[in-house]
């Protein structure tokens, strides 16, 4: 089956990532914003030492990739109704693969959020959404909290993607507070003009003590860029998914809480729809 329950990077570092998001002279990490950030003084000896520590883990990950490639069945078939777990939040090693960000982190607002384990052992995405706009003369709107999965990596920090092309639905078991959340699927391309492209779907939650299972067809996702719905739409590139995010940004100030049991994929052969939205070609010139 598809080995995408957790990013391979975290799977091989049970004690934590030794050199997370830092440059190493032995393991190359591509910086998409190279030249944008200010360069810091680097300790070459420390980088070499950290790189040597990381090297044995990367070789182990590379061996697992070779083994998986040899044993992989090229004629893979999924039974109708099959559900493939992606993130099981009851597992201890699942939460570290997610990162939380808010508008406060970027100096664009005053919201706060955290992702912790609830008393029952599930993931609890909680915080306070604040739509107060900073008086900086630049920001026009505020109120944003997000939890995003880590981007998958191959051995030696090579970029990788989730391949969900064999599935038709995204399955989520959640317990919400009545707010509307947004599910984002990112597919980072090669050029910077596509780095903000995301496919969105609104997740309506019910308040109260009851859990709900959301079965979301991939054909219902809308293409957006920096939160704006694009004129030219298209289906989700399911073979090149770089991350999944759950966002609270419903323009209502106040506390929020979303518990998550699991996120999974499902193949439903009765769902033959490729893309739900009709597209109209507008003439370039009108009389």
Automatic annotation (TrEMBL):
| A Pfam family matched in the record | CIA30
GO terms for CC?
mitochondrion
Residue ranges of domain NADH:ubiquinone oxidoreductase intermediate-associated protein in the record: 88-260
Name where it's found: Mitochondrion
> Among its keywords, does the record have Secreted?
no
Q: Establish whether keyword Zinc-finger is in the entry.
A: no
Known SUPFAM superfamilies for this protein?
A: Galactose-binding domain-like
Q: Which residues form a coiled coil?
A: 38-65
First-listed, main subcellular location of the protein, grouped into a coarse class: mitochondrion
Name the Gene Ontology molecular function terms of this record.
unfolded protein binding
Keywords carried by this UniProt record? Chaperone, Coiled coil, Mitochondrion
Biological process (GO) annotations held by this record are: mitochondrial electron transport, NADH to ubiquinone; mitochondrial respiratory chain complex I assembly
Q: Which family does it belong to?
A: Belongs to the CIA30 family.
Protein name (record): NADH:ubiquinone oxidoreductase intermediate-associated protein 30 domain-containing protein
Q: Which organism is it from?
A: Artemia franciscana
Supply the source organism's classification.
Answer: Eukaryota, Metazoa, Ecdysozoa, Arthropoda, Crustacea
């Amino acid at each position: 089956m598809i080995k995408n329950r957790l990013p391979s990077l975290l799977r091989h570092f049970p004690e934590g990532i030794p050199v997370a998001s830092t440059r190493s002279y032995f393991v190359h990490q591509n910086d998409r914003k190279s030249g944008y950030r200010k360069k810091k003084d680097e300790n070459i000896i420390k980088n070499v030492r950290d790189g040597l520590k990381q090297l044995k883990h990367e070789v182990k990950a590379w061996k697992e990739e070779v083994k998986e490639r040899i044993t992989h069945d090229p004629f893979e078939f999924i039974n109708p109704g099959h559900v493939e777990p992606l993130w099981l939040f009851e597992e201890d090693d699942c939460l570290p693969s997610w990162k939380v960000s808010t508008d406060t982190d970027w100096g664009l607002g005053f919201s706060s959020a955290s992702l912790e384990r609830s008393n029952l052992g599930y993931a609890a995405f909680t915080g306070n959404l604040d739509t107060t706009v900073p008086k900086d003369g630049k920001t026009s709107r505020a109120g944003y909290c997000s939890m995003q999965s880590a981007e998958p990596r191959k051995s030696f920090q090579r970029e990788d993607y989730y391949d969900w092309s064999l599935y038709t639905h995204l399955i989520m078991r959640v317990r919400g507070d009545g707010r509307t959340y947004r599910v984002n699927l990112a597919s980072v391309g090669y050029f910077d003009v596509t780095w903000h492209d995301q496919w969105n779907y609104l997740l309506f939650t019910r308040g109260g003590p009851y859990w709900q299972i959301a079965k979301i067809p991939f054909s219902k996702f809308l293409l957006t860029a920096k939160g704006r719905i694009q004129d030219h739409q298209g289906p989700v590139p399911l073979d090149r998914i770089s991350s999944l995010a759950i966002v609270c940004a419903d323009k209502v100030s106040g506390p929020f809480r979303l518990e998550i049991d699991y996120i999974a994929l499902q193949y439903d052969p009765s769902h033959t729809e490729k893309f739900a939205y009709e597209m109209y070609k507008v003439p370039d010139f009108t009389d």
